[in-house]
TrEMBL record:
Keywords: Membrane, Transmembrane, Transmembrane helix, Transport. PROSITE patterns: NA_NEUROTRAN_SYMP_3. It comes from Alteromonas aestuariivivens. SUPFAM superfamilies: SNF-like. GO terms for cellular component: membrane. It is a multi-pass membrane protein. Its main location: membrane. It is found in: Membrane. This is Sodium-dependent transporter. PANTHER family: TRANSPORTER. InterPro entries: Na/ntran_symport, SNS_sf, YocR/YhdH-like. The lineage of its organism: Bacteria, Pseudomonadati, Pseudomonadota, Gammaproteobacteria, Alteromonadales. The chain crosses the membrane at residues 12-31, 43-64, 90-115, 139-158, 170-190, 210-233, 245-269, 303-327, 348-367, 373-398, 419-440.
Length: 444
């Protein structure tokens, strides 16, 4: 069996895991949810739920991963001692591969817009129409480039690939966001955006829809349920204090989501000030792909040459956010092929990337029918059910003394601390109920 990789430093793991959690959803989903759901009141509820719901599930993945030192399939097989664990791991393997199949298409769009901005900066605008048009050849080319970029990083392994690039890309992402916030904040209309984002409407705080939205955002923004955190946890040194390192990951993820809002919402109101429509017919803020590919490009266009520079920086930011997530997704099936099937890392990466790209190709050829369906099937249905399964494994199947033994490696006095008093019963009783309620509410 090949020697397993390990993160060489605490900061390397935190930035890689936070990079996995900080995806496109943090930047295009979270800000508009905040502005549409009571401003800072939503942020407050989100912060509470991130630690009440997402953090305990994150800890379950990290503890299972580090204890078993294995990929998701073998790890759940080890702690359950039966085929049910392995089948759950394979379900996670398939889910994360399908998520990456549609994510790579969206990552390719980001890459195309970034290339277009770069070419415009040097005065080449003849390719703009093709780069910005929705066509199968363009989607195919840039999806392929995005998967190649992801594969290049994952081939390097844990230390020379994932950790090395996460330590470079995550600080770059934060610096770009900070510079863009400063620029946008001085534009006419930005003050109204800051008001929409930061002024709380506490009358909304107990609104069931707000609570469900905040719960979903907290859970999914940490990329839980599909084994990315379990696999990253398996590469963490036994000397690390897991509850503390898990809290650091959660805080970085939440922090990036909140500062992304400080950029996106003021930028939308600057766009409104410049004559760009930012509201849908029912009065809610435009979000998702329409926000990224319609509203913001129209804003960049309205501010002249500076807009080209801002556009290049913004789409560089979106590409980085997409890549730091995609490398963690690809690592889940690659780890399984390397450890369980004995493939060399390079071969495993090439095989898995090719299969996922083939899935992306099928989605592109049947875009109207498959794109939305795959997103719903994986993120709305499969991911929360996998999160529920992980809670059941950590809370009911795995022996408590084995969990305690694992936690003592990096924190010998954990038994007397607050974490051990709360977490075991919490992940056993509270998390499964809350996730189940959230799932049925979203489905119905």
């Amino acid at each position: 069996m090949a020697t397993r990789g390990e993160f060489s430093s605490r900061i390397g793991f935190i930035l890689a895991a936070a990079g996995s959690a900080v995806g496109l959803g943090n930047i295009w989903g979270f800000p508009t949810q905040v502005a549409s759901n009571g401003g800072a009141a939503f942020v407050l509820v989100y912060l509470i739920l991130a630690f009440v719901l997402a953090y305990p599930v994150l800890m379950a993945e990290l503890i299972i991963g580090r204890s078993t030192r294995a990929n998701m399939v073998d790890a759940l097989g080890k702690i359950s001692g039966n085929v049910l664990g392995r089948m759950t791991g394979i379900w996670g393997f398939i889910t994360v591969s399908l998520i990456l199949a549609f994510y790579a298409i969206v990552g390719g769009w980001m890459l195309a817009y970034f290339v277009n901005s770069g070419l415009n900066l040097i005065g080449i605008d003849g390719l703009s129409e093709w780069l910005l048009s929705f066509s199968t050849p363009r989607n195919l080319l840039f999806c392929g480039l995005f998967m190649a970029l992801t594969s290049f990083i994952v081939i390097g392994g844990v230390k020379a690939g994932i950790e090395k690039w996460s330590v470079r890309l995550m600080p770059t992402l934060v610096i770009i966001i900070a510079l863009l916030i400063i620029y946008v904040s001085f534009q006419p209309g930005a003050v109204e955006g800051w008001g929409a984002y930061l002024v709380p409407d506490f009358s909304r705080i107990l609104d069931p829809d707000l609570l469900i939205s905040a719960m979903g955002q907290a859970f999914f923004s940490m990329s839980l349920g599909v084994g990315t955190m379990l696999v990253y946890g398996s590469y963490v040194s036994k000397n690390e204090n897991l509850p503390s390192i898990g809290a650091s990951v959660a805080l970085v993820d939440i922090g990036v989501a909140i500062i992304a809002g400080m950029l996106i919402i003021p930028a939308m109101y600057v766009a409104l000030n410049n004559g760009v429509e930012i509201f849908t017919a029912d009065g809610s803020l435009i979000e998702g792909d329409q926000l990224i590919f319609t509203v913001l490009p129209a804003l960049f266009e309205s501010i002249g040459y500076m807009g080209i520079l801002v556009s290049a920086a913004f789409f560089a930011l979106m590409v980085i956010a997409a890549v730091t997530s995609s490398i963690s997704m690809l690592e889940v099936p690659v780890a399984y092929l390397v450890e369980s099937k004995g493939l060399g890392r390079k071969k495993a990466v090439v095989w898995m990337s090719s299969i996922i790209f083939l899935c992306s190709f099928v989605i592109m050829l049947n875009f109207e029918q498959l794109f939305g369906l795959v997103i719903a099937a994986t993120t709305q249905y499969s991911q929360p059910l996998l999160g529920l399964a992980l809670c059941l494994f950590a809370g009911w199947v795995w022996r408590r003394d084995a969990i305690l033994e694992e936690l003592k490696h990096g924190s010998p006095d954990i038994e007397t601390g607050m974490f051990w008093r709360i977490w075991p019963w919490y992940v056993r009783f509270v998390c499964p109920v809350v996730i189940a309620v959230m799932f049925f509410r979203s489905v119905l």
